[in-house]
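As a warm-up, study this chain.
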Amino acid sequence: VRTFLTAHFFAEQLGFDKQNIQSHKELYNASVRVWLQTINQQFNEKSTDILVVGHNPHISYLVELLTGQSFEGLQPSQVALVESDKE
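Now compare it with the structure written out below.
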């Protein structure tokens, strides 16, 4: 519930259509591989941005994998912005 409410807050702040918010309960305590599979399934050719909201340690592992950089991990209420130069 808390993650879903956080997603709605960020969507409002970023001008993201809240109707596009999806909840995937199977991601709770799932491996990073499952996270990536779920993200890839939701991303389509028309997608240019994706907002992922989750809990640690999994969200920090995901950011590390996507960026290839090691860091201490996200603290509560922190945000990571990951950009790609791929078009």
